[in-house]
Design goal:
- By secondary structure, the protein is mainly α.
- The chain has one domain.
- Helix content is 56%, strand content 0%.
- The chain contains eleven helices and no strands.
- It is found in: Membrane.
- This is Fatty acid hydroxylase domain-containing protein.
- Pfam families: FA_hydroxylase.
């Protein structure tokens, strides 16, 4: 394959997604464009993700289906719909819970989106960390950790109740201080793009930013299947909270394979979509490690 194309993909993919497509989304949201335009940007992001994973795959075998493609697409549609619904109900919630007018509406629109991202990142990180500490939450979060390959759609491969809990934790503080709907729309797109990048099978490069941004190099450590070892790098957008909470982990020498991912305690975790929805409600031994993993 053309070396120049691979080099372009390796160093240009993340700027294209984080700055380019998010930038287009921010411009559309600021102009109060119809929401289908943001969905079009998301479709371009998904197509770009799949294309780059084939140009510069981290692990070529992960580009092949493992009888999970249809299931993951259902997860993606359901959970992305939940994200969009959370944006749609903001005006209703704002009417029920009057905001104290703390939102900096006089800031430049891109800065408002950055602020929303940082606040949402804190709330989502807290729920994510708690999901590895408390058995009840882990039951629902385990759906996400059942994956044994990394690729873009893994980011939305979540139980819808857990997805709702994470988004609620991220968005609720914003609503309480008066988050505008247009900023929320840009935030929703940013979440989807970040999940694509964070779980990408693309062997891209971001230099020293890998220590700050919650991208795939660091997030692979989070999906290691052994107790304690994988309870690291919880951030969605950034690794700032992980550095503060001492849950950050990175080793450039580590190479990941499917045998290292998933849950050691549940190698036979259900793979069908409906079975994954039901699994958290089945009886489990909550006396063991809430992470559901073994050494």
């Amino acid at each position: 394959m053309n070396i120049a194309l691979r080099r372009l993909a390796r160093h240009g993919y993340v700027p294209l997604m984080l700055l380019g497509l998010n930038g287009i989304g921010i411009a559309l949201a600021a102009a109060n464009a119809p929401k289908p335009w943001l969905l079009l940007v998301l479709a371009v992001a998904i197509a770009t993700s799949f294309a780059v994973e084939r140009v510069i795959p981290y692990e070529p075998s992960w580009n092949g289906t493992k009888a999970d493609s249809v299931r993951d697409r259902v997860h993606a549609v359901v959970n992305e719909t939940l994200i969009l619904v959370s944006v749609a109900v903001i005006p209703l919630l704002a009417a029920i819970v009057p905001a104290p007018g703390l939102w900096p509406g006089d800031w430049a629109f891109p800065l408002q989106v950055v602020l929303a991202v940082l606040i949402a990142d804190a709330g989502i990180t807290v729920v994510h960390l708690a999901s590895h500490k408390f058995g009840v939450l882990w039951r629902f979060h385990a759906v996400h950790h059942s994956v044994t390959r990394f690729y873009g759609l893994n980011g939305l491969m979540k139980h819808p109740l857990h997805q709702t809990a994470e988004m609620a934790a991220g968005v609720a503080p914003l609503i309480l201080i008066g988050l505008p709907v247009d900023v929320a729309a840009a935030l929703a797109l940013a979440v989807a793009i970040q999940l694509l990048l964070q779980h990408s099978n693309a062997d891209y490069r971001v230099g020293p930013l890998k220590y700050v941004l919650a991208l795939n190099e660091g997030h692979r450590f989070h999906h290691l299947k052994w107790a304690g070892v994988g309870d690291v790098n919880f951030g969605l957008f950034t690794l700032l909270w992980d550095h503060l909470l001492r849950t950050y982990s990175y080793d450039p020498r580590r190479r990941f394979t499917s045998e290292q991912l998933g849950m050691a305690a549940h190698p036979d975790y259900p793979v069908d979509y409906l079975d994954q929805l039901i699994e958290p409600f089945r009886r489990h031994d909550l006396t063991r490690d809430p992470s559901g993993r073994t050494q």
